[in-house]
C-alpha cells in the first residue's frame, strides 16, 4: 500500500525534489506550500505537470507552516481523503546570510518561527493520528551546520537549525513507545540543485552590514566558491533520493540519522559521538527501548 506523505516547504529546493522523488517511488505525496493561488501558483502548476508527465500521485496543498490554522486545515483535508498520514517530512526552513549583528531580534524570531516552531505546529496536527495507529515516520531535514564546520555570516540560520535538530532528538524518544519512527537527514552544503543562497534573506540593518563589509568584503562569495570546489558534482537530488530510500525501508529498519554531505565538513563524526553518547546514557538510566520505535 502506498504511503500518504506530507512534505513541508515543498515549493522549491530540497522540498520540491523530495516530493517528486517520493511520488516517483509510488507514494501519494502532498507538496505543502503557501500562497498556492498567488506567488507559488507556478510551482503548483509545475507539480501538476510533473505528476501528469510521470504518471505519479503528486498533489499540492496550501500549507503555511507559520499558521496553525493553515496547518490544521491542510492536515484535516489529507486525513479526510485518505484516513491517515503515514510520513511527515519537516523540510520548511529559509536561509539568511549576513553578519549576525546586522539582523534585528525580530528577524531572528521570524527565522526561528519557520525553522523550529513550525515543526511543532505540524506535529501537533499530524502526530495524534500516527499515535492512534501506532505507526508512522517523521523525517527531519536538519543541517550539517548543527555540528560541523560553520563559516561566518550564517549564524541565524545555523542557530535555528540547531534548535530544530535538538527538538527532533527529543521527539524521537517521546514517539518511540507509540511506534512512530524518527529519521534525521543531515544535508551538507549544496551549491547545485537548490536555491537556498539565491533566495536567502539579508539583514535589516544595512549600516551595520556595511561596516562588516570593510573587514569581510565578499565573504559569502568566497565561501560559496570554496564549497563548490569541494564537491563540484554534488547535486541536491542526493538528499531527496536519500529521503525516498529511507521512506521505502520496512518499518523498524529506518536509520535514526543519516548524513548527505559530499563536502565533508565534519558533522558526521561529531553527530556519531553525540548520538552514541545519548544511546549509552539512555541505556544507563533504563530507557534503552526509546532508541527505536
From TrEMBL:
SUPFAM superfamilies: NAD(P)-binding Rossmann-fold domains (SSF51735)
A Pfam short name: adh_short
InterPro entries: NAD(P)-bd_dom_sf (IPR036291), SDR_fam (IPR002347), SDR_oxidoreductase (IPR051911)
Top-level taxonomic group: Bacteria
PANTHER family: OXIDOREDUCTASE (PTHR43976:SF9), SHORT CHAIN DEHYDROGENASE (PTHR43976)
Family: Belongs to the short-chain dehydrogenases/reductases (SDR) family.
Protein name as annotated: Short-chain dehydrogenase/reductase
Species the sequence originates in: Promicromonospora citrea
